[in-house]
Amino acid sequence: MTNRIARQIFFFAPAAVMSAWATVMLHTIATGHINRLLSPMFRNYVLTAAILLLVLSALYVLLYQPESETAPALVPTGRLRQLGRWLVLLIPVIAASILSPSALSSTTLSNRSSTAGVTPMPTWNAVSQESAKKALDADPSQPVPVEVTDLITLSQSPAQIAAFEGRKVRTVGLFVSQPGSAPKLVRWIMWCCAADAQPAPVELDGNTSGDWKESQWLEVVGTARFPSTPGHVVPRIDVESIKPTQEPDEPYLSP
Amino acid sequence: MFYAAFDLPSAPASAGISWPDVALSFFAIVLEGAPFLLLGAIISGLVDVFLPAGVIKDWLPRSKTQGIFAAIGAGLIFPLCECGAMPIVQRLIRKGVPPAVATTYMLAAPGLNPLAMFSTFLAFRNQDPWLMVVLRFSFSFLVLVFLGFWLARLRPEHMLRAETVMGSARTKPEMTPNPGLVLTPRPGFSLGGLQQFTGAVIRDFTGVLLFLVIGAAAAALFSTGFDRNLLAPVGQNLILGPLAGILLAQLLCLCSTTDAFIIAAFAPFSISAKIAFLVAGPLIDLKLYWLYRSAFQARFVHALWLRALAATFFLTLLYSLKP
Fold first, then answer.
1. Is the ipTM of this structure higher than 0.85?
2. Residues A129-156: tens digit of each pLDDT
3. Of A146, B54, B57, B321, which has the maximum CB count within 10 A?
4. Closest in A88, A116, A124 to B268, CB measured
């Protein structure tokens, strides 16, 4: 009896694992959580893989059957080991899909930041330079909609700093407040996935009071400043207004 | 104490670790890797069904030396990511390709492929890009030649897990690439090649997926919890700099098309530290260690790890100490 149940469990385990992975993938896509995990170019691969895994699961159940009763049964230690293998394939990915937060925290921000100052957004092409130039050419009488990374790009050139210093800007990002340092507005730059995401922070000065939670999405309007510190320039916004806002469709910036 | 012993500036205190962020990073790594692993398993299944054993062996040069250079050359021409490579390499070995040649290709493809060189050029375009591309390519090439000749001297039974050699030997379930999977065809539903293909894909995918999950957990833990600024004080040191680059590559476990952008922005590192990072990472890191374990014996992987990192350190140290 025990052998029969064990044979059934081990027969259905591959189909269960592949179906579970496919379900997790499809759920991640359907809920939009995938935008917080992978850069756009990888998302269709996940969808394709999910469909293929469902097809493979169906083919497996259709083409194969549990081992016959006459086949030699595995010893109990072998059974436990096999069960362990299938559970390692099943539990971590389901747990991670449930437990993974909507954004990386200030702890990881601190671990992945460089003490040598912020660096401009790396790009495959001149996108960030074009975006920063657009900000420079915008109507100076209105708050210029910019990304955090535009301010960092502008901070690399003394000429651009001179042209943009004091301009009113509007931007969104994750609020981060760490003891001993100024509050920051952060966007994460992602190459492939969240594991390689790099933070792009801009300091906030002035009235940032409010009941803001860690990593809450905020919209900030204020004046762009580029104060020099030893060795590098740290872009800063002198805050005029600050309010909660929706998470952007693409929470990460992609090069 | 360590920093004081080498008269180095002290590192900032680490911020600790955020376990939810580890979960996020782990989930991202497995979601990114699984489609490529499945693609590798599908190609492996096609090779199993359509490529008769020995055909590839007939195409390969007879001499071991030529075989090693052919494998490095193939790594230059056919880009293959680390996750997708594992099922294919295992299948090629079972189809008769000498393990030394298949392993050299597996090591060469991520680091030497044109996409990795192109991304290096772009990442360093404001920091002497041609120098970085030339150094990355030439050092990677030299390390691969060194590893290739070492691999050519090894006997397959000292490199490979028994199941990698045996394939799907049904008589001993524990000798299959995925011992938890026993494929018993259903009578009356035999679909010939499709059945063989389906079985091979499922066996390879679920077999290597286990190692991807373990490797991704290690990579997520360190890429999220390790404060990279701890290595900043030694990044410019002539001797410790390359070691710091190698260590960072082992912990961050980045893809070879991404790593250049991350390290280019890491100002505290010298050129030799950055090159050490770029050469060592695609060869082996914490994630790849576990992926390699899906096909190779632990003792062999440890020896490969040691030799790959020692060769990288030697070359980057020479560059670091040049007048």
1. yes
2. 666 677 777 777 778 888 888 888 888 7
3. A146
4. A116
Which ranges of chain A does DSSP label H, i.e. alpha helix?
Answer: 2-30, 40-63, 76-99, 106-112, 127-137, 148-154, 158-164
A104 interaction partners in chain B (CB closer than 8 Å): 18, 21, 24, 224
Domain extent for B106:
17-321
Residue from the list B184, B225, B229 with its beta carbon closest to the beta carbon of A64:
B184
Low-confidence ranges of chain A (pLDDT < 70): 1, 69-77, 114-132, 230-231
The neighbour count for residue A108, using CB atoms within 10 Å, is 27
User: Which of B31, B126, B171, B222 to mutate to probe the A interface, most A CBs <10 Å?
Assistant: B31
Query: pLDDT, tens digit, for every residue of A87-124?
Result: 999 999 999 999 999 888 888 888 887 655 555 555 54
Which pair of tokens denotes residue A15? 């189909």
| Rounded Cα distance, A173 and A221, in Å | 12
Q: Which domains does chain A have, with CATH numbers?
A: 2-99 (no CATH), 106-253 (2.40.50.140)
Domains identified in chain B, total number: 1
Q: Is residue B8 part of a domain?
A: no
The shortest CB-CB distance from A28 to any of B31, B173, B220 is to B31
pTM of the model: 0.85
Closest-CA residue to B277 (of B254, B300, B297, B294): B254
Q: Could you tell me if B76 and B114 are in contact, meaning their C-beta atoms sit under 8 angstroms apart?
A: yes
What token pair was written down for B26? 């782990």
Q: Are the beta carbons of B34 and A46 separated by less than 8 Å?
A: yes
The helix (run of H) or strand (run of E) holding residue A228 is strand A228-229
Counting Cα atoms < 13 Å in the Cβ hemisphere of A32 gives 7
Kindly list the residues from chain A whose CB atom is less than 8 angstroms away from the CB atom of residue B227: 110-111
In a domain, B11, yes or no: no
Q: Which residues in chain A have Cβ-Cβ distances shorter than 8 Å to B187? A: 65
Residue A238 neighbours by CB distance under 10 Å: 15
